Amino acid sequence: MTSSDCLDQNSDLIPTEFSKVSIFIGPKYLWENFKDFSLEQSNLWKSIPSQYISREGDKIDSIGISPLLYFTSSYRIAYQEILQKQIEVNNIILFNDGFDELQQIISDQFQYGFRILGICTLAIENRTDTIKYWQWHKEEINLLESL
User: Is the pTM here over 0.70, yes or no?
Assistant: First the structure.
């Protein structure tokens, strides 16, 4: 198994646990929109094991097995509920709201070894070299919307 492989191919035919997970940090509507997102007539929420963790620590599962994707509204919650429980994280994806905790996330990145991806609609004033940035151009957005 390679380091980028998130499935333990020796355990189950259909995986029920993952060696590494990804965390989406942003507003709750990301989770709500994920519930309705379909690709090729397959609802991703029903296909990809995921979990939403509220500010109070309440958890909502998509299909009832160990999640591959976590959704939460703040890094503090992700840290308490995922990282401190020794769940290995491959990616942290920040959506607009997640940037307010950026310095702590960068500090923890070296300890936990995750990658950081930021997606935002607002300009970022203080950029750092440890994060990859992408500024969408109108032509790219139009292309994606036409698919």
Answer: yes
